[in-house]
Amino acid sequence: MQSQTETTGNERSAVCAMRLLGVMVALFFSLTSPGPASADDAPKPAAKPLAQAAPQAVPGFWDPRRRPERPDLSRITVIRFLTETDYPPFDFTGPDGNPAGFNVDFARAICEEIKVPCTIQMRRFETLVDAINTNKGDAIIASMAVTPALRTKLDFTDPYYRVAARFVSRRDNVTAEVRPESVSGKKIGVIGGTAHEAYLKSFFTDAVIVPYPNDDALRTALRRGEIDMIFGDAIALGFWIAGTDSGECCGFSGGPFVESRYFGEGIGIGVRRGNDILRQALNWAMFRVWEKGRFTDLWLRYFSVSPF
What we know:
Elements: H1 9-15, E1 79-84, E2 92-93, E3 99-100, H2 102-114, E4 118-123, H3 128-133, E5 139-145, H4 148-151, E6 154-156, E7 165-170, E8 187-191, H5 195-203, E9 208-212, H6 215-224, E10 229-233, H7 234-242, E11 250-257, H8 260-263, E12 267-272, H9 276-291, H10 294-302
Parallel strand pairs: 1-4, 1-5, 8-9, 8-10
Antiparallel strand pairs: 2-3, 5-12, 6-12, 7-10, 7-11
């Protein structure tokens, strides 16, 4: 994925890099510090989650030791959520013509916690920010990556997931860990001009980095054995691995990389600037949804291969 802004799908792909084993999940807060890059801070996969048996890793950024206080919800009588039209599995039109997807179900769970009715309207992604700021909605839940530019136009909740990058190898070469020294001299494919390529050039300096113009060319090269592995957006790669186009050729090697300097601050719900009442209510409700295990249930419903 390339980086996302309020106006273009291409930008979503880079921070969402388009545009996480168990019910207790890894707390990635320590990875978001933007300290200087050095040999000591060379790339490490995201921290291992708190161990509990589960089919796959589930994202979560809520610290059970930091329970948010229940805000005053009396002034919230309805929440008008806006989402985008076509970004499966997060947002799409269901068979009945109504909004569907992970974001839609998460919004409904939030409204159940706050105990208010909510509406969910689908709009083109590039119109969402203006729609909120002209009072055509109250909150954007559309896998919108938090960026400095967007913070000048919207306020955001805490992140409810983050964009991760991962390595993919052919199944006979899948490894449990990928570190710079373990891939010295290996050919790693990547989409040219992306944050993923910049990350490899910064940290995997002894690997042979091979840029490709698009996903099809990159994945074909891996299937043919022209390269040893690829590095890219974990969500897109997870769906490719699980889908028929991969021919069951490949699997994830190592764990997720989530450094915010390259892969963004995370995905939050956007509200009008200054709307602290709604923002705090959403933060409280998201914690409750996660605490009760409903977030985990939703994630496992939509992701057959975990990106994390």
